[in-house]
Amino acid sequence: MNIRAYLTIAATLGAFVLNAQTIRIQGRYPAGNVGELALHIRPLDGTPSSDGVELKAAGKTFEGETPASSNGFYQLYGRNGNVQLLMPVYSSKTNGSQTLTLQLEQGCPMITDAGDDNKALSAFNKKLWINDRFFWTQGKTLKSGELLPFLRSYQEAADSLTRVYTCSEPVVQYLRLWAYTSACNNYESIPRAVGITHDKLDFTSKDLCEDPLQILDTPLAACFPSAAYMISQMLPAGRMNEQLAALHAHISDENMRKNVGDIIASNFIRRFNYGNDFEEGLAELKEAVSKYGIDGKLAEEFVRRRSSVKGSPFPSDITLVDADGKKMDISAFKGSYVYIDLWASWCGPCCKEVPFLQQLEKDLQNDQVKFVSISLDRDEKAWKSKMKALNMHGNQWHDPNDALGRALNVQGIPRFLVYDKEGRLYNANAPRPSHPDTREYLENLK
C-alpha cells in the first residue's frame, strides 16, 4: 500500500488554535494498576521542545493546563514508579477541557476513553510497546528472513487500526507517520538489536521505507524527533550551504526545513576545525542564517567554540559553581598550570578514571600544577551523590548547562585539558590519569 496517499495534509491544520489559547487536561486512573504517578504534557506541534506542564495528581485524578496545540496532538509523558510512560493524545478542542482515563496494560499507558482517535493511538502505542521490547530484548532470535515482515507489521497495524476505528484524518496521518518512523528507526538499529549488519540482510531500507524526502515533507512529521534526522541523512554530501540548498529544493514544509537546517548547521559547527579558516566558516554560517533562516544563536555558538583552539583563553561567559553554589573562576589559578577533568556521574569511563586521578594528584611532584574536576551533569543531585560515593575531593565544580563542553567543542567524555599559567589552552586533549605517562607529562610542566 502506497503511504503517500495518506499524507496529504490540509493547509488549514494550523487553524485549530492560537498560541495564546490553553486547554485543561484532566483525568483519572483506576486503583490497582498505577503506582507513584508523575505526569507531564506538552503540545506536539513543532514548537521548541520544553519540559512541558506538570499534571497535578490528587488521589486517583490528575489535571493541569497546557498551551493548546496548533494541530491537536499532545505528548503525555512521565513515570509510574520507575517505569517511563510516553504516549500521544489527540484533542481537536481549542479551549475548555479534555477528560482522559489512563490505564496501564502490561505496563503500557493507554487512554480508554476520549473517542476513537485516542483509542486508536493507544492501541498502536501498545503495539510499539510490545514490539520494541521484543526487538531490543529478544531481537537476536529473529532470523534475517523474519526481519522484514516484523518491521512491516508496524505499517500493517496502523492500516488495521484506521479500519477498526473511525479516526479523524489528522490521526490517520499521524498513525501512518508513526508507523513509518518506527519501522525505519528499528531498521537502522538492527546491527545493535539483532546482531546482523545491514550488508548481510536480504533486503534494504528501500524495501521498507519509502523516500523520506517525500513521506516526511508534511507538518505532522515535526511530531517525530527522528524525522528531521532521517531527512538530513538523505541529503547529498557537501558543504553546509550546498546541503541547505538541496533541503529547500526537496522539502516545502517550513517547520521541517528549520528542524533539518538546524541539524545541518549543528553538524557543521561540531565538525569544524576551529584552528583553520575560522573567518571563512563564520561567513558561511552567517550566510546560512540570512539565506536559509538558520537559528542565529548557532552563529554565536560557532564563535564560542573558537575557545577550542590552542592558545585561546578560558571561555569568559561560562558559569561554574562549587558544591555550595559559589561561583568559581579558573583565573584564581593564574600562575599555575591547570589539569581539568571533564566528567559526569552517568559516564562509566569517567568514574573509572577517578581513583587514578586521586592517586595522580597525591603522587605528583610539581606544585605548579593544579587539579580541577568539572561535572557536566544536568542533575545537580546526581553530581553530588556520585561525588560523595567516589570520595572526590579538592576542586569540584559544576557546569549544569554543558556550556564549557560546547565552547570547547567536546565530543565525548572523559576529557582532560591543560591550561597554562596565563589561563590559555595548552592541551585540548591531555592524557588520562590512567595513562602511564601522564605523571611524567605533568611533572615536566614548568
Could you outline the blueprint of secondary structure elements for this entry?
Elements: E1 22-28, E2 37-43, E3 53-58, E4 61-67, E5 73-80, E6 83-90, E7 97-105, E8 108-111, H1 115-138, H2 144-164, H3 169-188, H4 190-193, H5 205-208, H6 212-215, H7 225-234, H8 240-250, H9 254-271, H10 278-292, H11 297-304, E9 320-321, E10 327-328, E11 337-343, H12 348-363, E12 369-375, H13 380-389, E13 395-398, H14 403-407, E14 415-419, E15 425-427, H15 438-443
Parallel strand pairs: 1-7, 11-12, 12-13
Antiparallel strand pairs: 1-4, 2-3, 2-5, 3-4, 5-6, 7-8, 9-10, 11-14, 14-15
Helix pairs in contact: 1-2, 1-3, 2-3, 7-9, 8-9, 8-10, 10-11
Can you describe what's shown?
The chain is of the alpha+beta class. It has three domains: 3-208, no CATH class; 235-308, no CATH class; 320-443, Glutaredoxin. The protein has 15 helices and 15 strands. The protein has helices at residues 115-138, 144-164, 169-188, 190-193, 205-208, 212-215, 225-234, 240-250, 254-271, 278-292, 297-304, 348-363, 380-389, 403-407, 438-443; strands spanning 22-28, 37-43, 53-58, 61-67, 73-80, 83-90, 97-105, 108-111, 320-321, 327-328, 337-343, 369-375, 395-398, 415-419, 425-427. An eight-stranded mixed beta sheet has the order 6-5-2-3-4-1-7-8. Strands 13-12-11-14-15 form a five-stranded mixed beta sheet. A hairpin with a 2-residue loop joins strand 5 and strand 6. Helix 8 runs antiparallel to helix 9. The radius of gyration is 26 Å and the shape is globular. The termini are far apart.
